[in-house]
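Researcher: I'm preparing a figure for a lab meeting and need a structural model of a single chain. I don't have an experimental structure, so a prediction will have to do for now. The sequence is pasted below. Please return the structure as tokens so I can convert it later.
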Amino acid sequence: MIRSRSAVALLVLATLLAGCTAAPAPSPTSTEVARLEACADAASSIVTAAGDLVAEYELPGLDPSATPAPGVTATPAPAPTSSGDAITDAVTSARATRDELGCDREQFTEDLESGLARIEPETPIAAAVWRRVSASVLGTVEQTARVWELAAGDDLLDVLARAADGSTIELAPQTEVDATLVLLAGITLRGSGRDETVLRSTAPDAAIMVVTDGLVRLEALTLQLGLGDPSSGVVAGPSASIVLNGVRVTGAATEGEGDSAGGAGVYLSAQGAEGSGRGTTLEITDSLFDRNAWAGLAVTGGHRVSIESSTFRGNAGAGIVFLDQTSGSVASSTFTDNTVGVAAAGTSTPAIVGSTITGGTVGLQADASAAPAVQKVTISGPSSAAIIFGGESAGSVSDATCRDVSHGIVIGDGAAPSLGSNDCTLARGTG
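Model: Understood. Here is the structure written out token by token.
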């Protein structure tokens, strides 16, 4: 992820420039014109190196073709970081030139500011790197984690660019952003309650993109996605570690429309076994995911989740989608009027325990070689079936209760789940 040599370079830039002291008088052998040109060239070399680093992150934004469902946004992997060393070298060299020639400090800073402002990043990650590099070069990046109190009208993007790893940003009651918030460091975004603090995003692809292996937290707030846009709430890659507590992520889908195109409330993206071996990578407690266009939550790769006491309601595709080798547990949670309550595919192995699924088309569906473990789950009112095992899926169902359903547990010809004692009808199907 972005915490690499380039990230280390960004953190030391401010320190390098802060060490510049008043320089000695210019060399009597230098002409004033040549000296001024050399000072301008020194500032320009930093701007050039910064532009090269930003350019490395000019990837094709959010590529829907890389996702498991049409229209769902993914997190592109950061570009190579060879320019991280180059910008560190440029700052070091510029400092030496500035000290040697006695460059005017205010003019040097002005040249840096104007040059950095001319860099025009085109993708969300590149824009975040540009802001971080600019803040580092100009010496405004914080070196120590602290709590930031964001007032109405404050620029959240600017605060994110300057905040140190481990910082907490306390949001104003109403905060509106029209660009993706790219987190390059482990940051906590905190509100005063999910009914009191609303972070409203009209970003076209994702409201928040996590591009760090630092711990990211969202607490006590509502993340509201823009009307009419098939955007996702929080999008993260294979190295992400995220905690959501007391959060609502709400989209603009029409309940029950069954449209798989669009975004997810939270989408953890990875391929194959990426994301595995790190324990729980997503922890959700006392949160609500509603009216998202594809899923309330979607996890891929090897991500592992822990979900407690949360609600998934009116998500057009599914409440939760488990793909690839994903795993983890969903406990004491409620699923209401999602097209599918919980969907498991690939070789995923989620455990669904002590939860309630109501309405929609299918309560729980397993396909491919998924093996969900379902225990003490009550399913009522889906229009098609309570539980469907298709493909070559396995897993187990015990102590399940099915109410007001046309079909209870439906098992395809290639599926082989283990069934305990359940209060559900049993049917064999095809597939």
